[in-house]
Specification:
With 179 residues, the chain is mainly α. The chain contains 9 helices and no strands. Helix 2 packs across helix 4 and helix 3 packs parallel to helix 6.
Length: 179
Amino acid sequence: MYKALTKNLSFDFSSTFALLISVSLIAISAQLSIPLPNGVPITLQTFTVALIGFCLCKNNQGIKSIIFYLFLGLIGMPIFSLGNSGFSTLLGLTGGFLYGFIFLAYFCQKSKKSKKIISKLLFTLLGLLSCHFFGVLQYSILTGISFSNSALLVSIPFLLKDSLSILLALICSSKVKYE
């Protein structure tokens, strides 16, 4: 009877380890930040989230890592940028970018599975634009600044940096063999 109860309860150490390492890397990259007057700091999270999306495609592990990171921050671990945490951060000026990481990881994952270079580029661009869209939208709503002016403040100046970060993550991920 014990075997019947535990038959489907298998522990996948490598997946759990990958999840914990991924969350740790995102948390570290969030602390490597430069605060800006607009309230949205420059961080290395775009690179890290893209790398995780590219490397952890199996069973949506990359997306699960991002969701677990958000959950840990939500319950109070100071792992968001500048050591922030909690519900207020997810509902604050940077919250939309944090949610957008889920889409960035998802589209990086889709990109990695694609064989055509144009598809890879389109998927990664869609992931980056999705992340920025949610970030700009939430920023706009909270500040009362128009969407277009919010984009000029917290998105457009960083698109080149974020695009290069994603390209570097794609190059680095080609060297990683994780199954």
